[in-house]
Amino acid sequence: MTEFFGRHPGHEQLVFCADETTGLQAIIAISSTALGPALGGTRFHPYPSEDAAVADALNLSTAMSYKAALAGLALGGGKAVIIGDPDRDKTEPLLRSYGRFVESLGGRYITACDVGTYSPDMDVIAQESRHVTGRTVEHGGAGDSSVLTAFGVFQGMRACAEHRWGTPTLRGRRVGVAGVGKVGRHLLDHVLADGGEAVITDVSEAAVERVRQEHPEIDVVTDTMALVEADLDVYSPCALGGALDDTSVPRLRAGIVCGGANNQLAHPGIEKLLQDRGILYAPDYLVNAGGLIQVADELHGFDFERARARAARILDTTREVLQAADAEGVPPVVAADRLAERRMADAGRGRPLWLGGPTS
User: Fold this and answer.
1) Which among 77, 93, 144 has a CA at the least distance from the CA of 117?
2) DSSP-assigned letter for residue 115
3) What is the pLDDT of the chain when averaged over all its residues?
4) Which residues bind NAD(+) (predicted)?
């Protein structure tokens, strides 16, 4: 494990969870509790190896720490991954077993939905743990967090449009959305309502067909690379991470990249490649914080309008980051990291470790 922690020296805790009876194999990564308990979703995915699962958990939990800090939340960052195919391996006994592991951390980690898990799954986990959010409306939760995730990405997109073209609107702009599942589908609604045009792609034909039924005016391309090479104003990765790499960035024609996917940069240095090409990149953990804001609000008795108002502030925070990047001559990722690290350092002094306890 030394090589993983060497790349993530700030991580506080890494927990391996195994239950032979239910087949559970899970990893919980707690990046930071300097601002409060670590909140982050549970990803259910068929990783090719345990090392790949650990690396993903560490990367995702780091992003959650920065995301919470940039969103102004009194929360730290964590993430969990369950190794397996959710369509085949997800069972109530397995989820309940996982819930017991979450509960064993005493509130240092609060879980929620992510890729492969949904609000009904959180209801099952909540039978074994108090430290669960992202629950169904029927059980006092906020429901689908992708609603405010998409709203926040749209606010970040508006800030980028203002920074690049002088006005915070997508009217008359062509936006390419890669992945029209949970977040991308809602994001399309905002873009089209704002007067923008859209072109999409998704590996799921069913997802594409759902969008076509709702918005027959959109264009569809065959795959992600075709979208990257399309004549776009904005490219919006909304599927899995690593969308911006050494192959895609040199072929990208859009002037702005702003999307909902986590960990969009395939490796360090991609942010500089984007900057060198004159492409304005909105850091994913800055603009996609709406879902985190939504599930965090649920901890205090969910109020949609209150959560939406906080998510709307992503517009102003994105403006602040882009202005700082210009002033300091650095990529927006560097400016966003500096802002998040400053907030964590200032608020976390004297309380470096959250030991559990009430979350509301």
Assistant:
1) 144
2) T
3) 92
4) 179-184
The boundaries of the domain holding residue 167 are 146-290+300-306+313-335
Boundary of a domain, candidates 87, 113, 139: 139
Residue 187's domain is classified under what CATH number?
A: 3.40.50.720
Residues of the chain with pLDDT under 70: 1-9, 348-360
Supply the pLDDT for residue 354.
Answer: 54
Q: For 114, left (φ over 0), alpha (ψ -120 to 50), or beta?
A: beta
Say if residue 174 is in the same domain as residue 203: yes
Q: Is the dihedral of CA 291, 296, 299, 304 positive or negative?
A: negative
Q: Are residues 191 and 272 in the same domain?
A: yes
d(CA 163, CA 323): 8
Tell me what pLDDT residue 252 has. Answer: 97
**CATH code at 21?**
3.40.50.10860
357 in any annotated domain: no
Q: Which of 96, 118, 139 is a domain's end point? A: 139
Residue 11 lies in a domain: yes
Q: Is 182 marked within a binding site?
A: yes
Q: Are residues 218 and 195 both part of a single domain?
A: yes
- Residue the block writes with tokens 């802002």: 339
Tell me: is residue 183 an annotated ligand-binding position.
Answer: yes
Q: Which residues contact residue 44 at a Cβ distance below 8 angstroms, ignoring those fewer than 6 apart?
A: 81, 82, 84, 86, 89, 90, 114, 115, 116, 117
Q: In this predicted structure, what is the pLDDT of residue 257?
A: 98
- What count of other Cβ atoms lies within 10 Å of the Cβ of residue 7? 13
Distance of CA 189 to the CA centre of its chain: 19
Residue 1 confidence (pLDDT)? 45
Catalytic residue among 67, 79, 90, 272: 79
Is residue 79 flagged as an active site residue? yes
Query: Are 217 and 271 found together in one domain?
Result: yes
Phi-psi region of 23 (alpha: psi -120 to 50; beta: other; left: phi over 0): left
Q: How far is CA 240 from CA 37, 123, 217, 219, in A?
A: 26, 25, 26, 21
State the DSSP string of 170-207.
-TT-EEEEE--SHHHHHHHHHHHHTT-EEEEE-S-HHH
